Structures are given as structure tokens and as C-alpha cells.
Amino acid sequence: MRSTGRRVGGWCAGLLLAGVSVVVGCRAADSDGVTPVPQLLAFLPWLLAPTGCALLLALLARWRAGLVWGVVVLGLLAWYVEPYGRRGEPGGPAVAELRVLTSNVESGHGTGSLIAVIRRERPDVVFVEECEHGCRAALERTFGGTLPFRRAVAADGSAGSLLLSRFPLRDAAGVRGAMGMPGAVADVRGHRVRLQLAHPAPPLPGQVGVWRRELGRLRDFAAADRRTPTVLAGDFNASQDHAAFRRVLDTGLRDAARLAGHDRTPSWPARTAPAIGVQIDHVLVSPDFSVNTARFLDLTGTDHRALLVDIALHGRG
């Protein structure tokens, strides 16, 4: 009876380790794999739990190979939980300060809460994802005086997006996607700053190719001009554990939340499972910026937390 229990425990440990190993193997290979790997990669740190359970089962089953396997997987997970991306401070003096806010308002349902946040926090630039016609009208009506410059993709439901700015804007091409991703070039106290809203399609089963392709377009945008200061912000539907998102960072952009010490603070799903969420809402900045603070803010009516960052633009040293 005892040997049967050990065999069952060993089989359970092996199944758990096999599943986790597939995900960790894709992470080690710098690949997002196929469904369900991209979805599981978003929650990579939480795979420590089934790995720990597998180690306990292997110990109870006296399965030495399983113990070695589990320790290796545990070590790899601990390694990859570490923050990804470059750090460092700009060399030149600060020439302007900006407060940037990004928020996915879930097809406009969080518009009222976002209006209250903008009134309270007074950001200079606001990126709003899933801002349908009613959301756009409400924001433009309320902040026409304080954030008078705007670029938008007008659409229903999740496809609409809006970029509001205190600084004058010039047209830019934006990035093509299933959901609106407007762009602009801002005049920030005499300095050109590229602004681009990010909202690629989510990696749903059957749509992973679209998600990967649209993140690739954001990567191409970031790489196209590495001399002009750039802010790329929004709901990326990706975390630092996704290879497609890391390739955006590899262009030289830096994650503002990470620079402020909040690299694993979850932003989604804020309403249904905030404790085990993942950070998919980001503000990425070029090396021309330093980051002073970053805060994730709770909004009602949406399953995303907003991200507010204070950044400083530096001249070239």
C-alpha cells in the first residue's frame, strides 16, 4: 500500500514538473511557444507553487531523480523572476518633467473613475485604451481646457483609443493593429518627444500569431528612431516574461515601473483576481528619461489598474 502511494506521488510530481518544464523551457529558449504557453508565461512567478508541490511529492515518494529535476526547475524559475531590461541614468541635465498616465477603461466602463483620477493627479499626457465614442466625448469635454491636444482612433468597444496631451502635438503615423494605437510627436518645452499608445491584441487561443505580430510592430516603432526621446505606453497584453515584449525592451526602451522598483506589481486582472495578477500595463521610456515615481491606481468599472509615472527628460550629455 505504501509503495502504491509512493508511485502515485511520483507520477503526480512528474506531471507537475513536466508541465512547468515546458513553460520554463520556452522562457529559457526565448520563445513564447504556442497555446497554452503564452498564457502561462504571463504568470511565470506563480509557477513556483506547483514546482514546490512537486518537490514535496517527490520527497515523500523518495524519488531522487524527481528531486534533482525539481531543484533545477526551481532554480530556473528563481532566475527568470528577476527583473529584465536595462537600468542606468541619463547623462545630461533635466530639461523638462512630465507626468504620464495610462489606463485601459474596459470599453469605456471605467471612464468616470478615470476622470476623477485625472482631476486629482493632473497628468501632462494620458494614454487611454478601450476608449469608445462615449469615453472619448466625455474626456474631451471634461479636459478640453487642460489637455487640449489629442489624437484618437474612433471606434466602438475595445478598438477605440485616445491620447490626450498638455503639450502641442504633431501628427505621426501610429502603429497598425486590430485595436487603435494612435501616435504623435509632442513639443515638450521645445523638445520633440515621440508618443505612442500600445494596445496589441491579447494572446487568446487562436490569436497568438496576431498578438506576436502586433508586438513586433511596436518593436519596429521603437527601433525606427533611437535618437528622438520616446514614450511608449499602454496595455501591452504582455509581461517581461514574454519574448515578444522583451524584444521591445531590447530596442533600448526601459520600463518605468521597473526603474521605480515596481517590476512585479500586478495591473490585471484588478477586479477578479488582483492578488495573483500580472503586470501587462506599462510605460516604456527611452534612455533620455529618468523615472522619479511610479504608482498603480485602482479604478472602478475596469479590470485594469492605471499606471501613473513621473519622469524627467534629460538633454544629451
Summarize the structure.
The chain is of the alpha+beta class. It has helices spanning 2-28, 37-41, 48-60, 64-80, 111-121, 133-142, 208-224, 243-249, 256-259; strands at residues 94-104, 125-129, 149-153, 161-165, 169-171, 183-188, 191-198, 230-235, 254-255, 281-285, 289-297, 306-314. The mean pLDDT is 94.
Descriptive labels:
alpha+beta; six-stranded mixed sheet; 317 residues; 9 helices
Q: What do these coordinates show?
A:
The protein has 317 residues and is of the alpha+beta class. It has helices spanning 2-28, 37-41, 48-60, 64-80, 111-121, 133-142, 208-224, 243-249, 256-259, and strands at 94-104, 125-129, 149-153, 161-165, 169-171, 183-188, 191-198, 230-235, 254-255, 281-285, 289-297, 306-314. It has a six-stranded mixed sheet with strand order 3-4-2-1-12-11. A six-stranded mixed sheet has the order 5-6-7-8-10-9. Strand 3 and strand 4 (161-165) form a beta hairpin. The protein starts with a helix and ends with a strand.
Which class do the helix and strand fractions yield? alpha+beta
Approximately how much beta-strand content do the residues carry? 15-25%
Helical segment count = 9
Query: In whole angstroms, how far apart are the ends?
Result: 73 Å
Order of helices and strands: HHHHEHEHEEEEEHEHEHEEE
Mass-distribution shape: elongated
Radius of gyration: 21 Å
For the secondary structure, the number of strands is: 12
Main sheet: strand order: 3-4-2-1-12-11
Largest sheet: 6 strands, mixed
Q: Helicity, in percent?
A: 25-40%
Low-confidence stretches: none
Report the average pLDDT across residues. 94
